[in-house]
Structure formats: C-alpha cells, structure tokens
Specification:
Blueprint: H1 4-16, E1 25-28, H2 38-46, E2 49-52, H3 67-73, H4 78-86
Parallel strand pairs: 1-2
Length: about 90
Amino acid sequence: MCRVLPVSRGGRWLRREARWSHRRQIVLAGGGAAVPGIDDLVAKRSGVSTLIANPFASMQASERIRPRQLAQDAPMLLIATGLALRSFE
C-alpha cells in the first residue's frame, strides 16, 4: 500500500498543473515500474494512457538473453541504455 500513496499524490499534482492537461501518455521507469499492475493503477487514477518503459523494444537481442528477464529489467535500465546509445549516435 505504501507504493500507491506517491502515485495518488502525484496524480493530484498533475491534475492541478495546467501544463499537464495536454499530456497524452505517462511512461513509468525505474524499480517502481516493476510493481505488478502499477501501469493500470496510474492510468486509472490519472485518466492518462500509461505504459512501462522498455528501451529495448526496438532492439534485436542476442539469443543468449532471456526475453522474460530482459522485459522485467528493462524499466530499470532506461537511463543506462540512453547513456550507452549516446556514443553510437
């Protein structure tokens, strides 16, 4: 229950912000995004489409990578992936 509380407070703050009214989607990242059902909860409370970040969605993975484990870890690797890709652009 303690993880839901920040979502509630965050949702109230977002609704008060005039700049938020034009937002179409929320992307959840980090360890909190691994909480089962958090994307549905945030979408329901905010009224905004919500998804879990996956920086590997459009990348081809090695056969040695376990897809289920990668999907589980992906939201926590968003910043690291972005920083790593900077050197390839």
